[in-house]
User: What shape does this take?
Amino acid sequence: MLLIGGGTGGLAIASCLATFASVAVVEAGGLYEQDNGNQFVVPYYGLVMLVLGTTEDYPCPPPIDWDLSYIFDKLLPHFKKTSTLTPPNLAKRNAPNATIKYDPAAFDNSLRGPLHVSWANWVDPTQSWLALALQAVGMTLSPVVLSSGQINGGAWVPTTIDPKDGTRSTSKSSYLDSLSGPKPIVYLRSQASKITFERTKKATGVIVSTNGTNYLLMLSGSGPASSLASHGTPVISDLTGVGQNLWDQIFFNVLRDITVPNTGTYLSTPAQQAFAGSQYLINTTGPYSSAGGYLSFEKLPASYRKNLSA
Assistant: This one.
């Protein structure tokens, strides 16, 4: 079996298939440890927070006619299979003002999911004040920590960090490296440029190049016939949904100057960075151990939503 793409989904699927089949993965990139050093290992560099979608996100609303097996309650058992939850280490966090609430029913450790989910052992002082401020204006703590289909209120969000050594739990470390049996063969720096099909429309192979594009199905002749014809691509399968219905999340930052000490305050000098490094390497604590914090959500009032365009 051949899988295209060794990312979050690709390696998870490949590891499952490898338990009963010979599997190869074509991946355009390289190994993150080599390409990005410790920036994809140490939690501090970026966010690795785990938040599930709302019940309203599953299934997608019309015009997509999803099967009812894609509703949140049907998908939650599959989400549970992916991860193992470790409760917060309150002694290491040492943050009594950062109360954590979570719903154990959203996880099932008996399934021994390979992705590690835990809480960081460092709390940004600024976020403690932010949490109090948001709660003061009515955005209360979420008792289900944004993991049970309800995105409403605030929470100290769980992160995909391995609590044993404080490193990021990635698709590679969780699925590929943890396999005890035969592992997929991964072809690095190999860009899939086209899927080859038989007359029966059965996919039989992949054309690989060092540079290519991600519009793989449409380049291979599977997609809306009108779109393919406009680019001179022979139509193998007229599939109107391919390349359509892209959903994106609106996200933008509003930045304000603050005087409260924050994570950057404790990493502003070489001496502080060295001390934080020793905290992380020896105890998996300190600023470098954190890749997330407090999130709070509220639904835009109906009076505002009615004026929004689709």
Summary: The chain has ten helices and 13 strands.
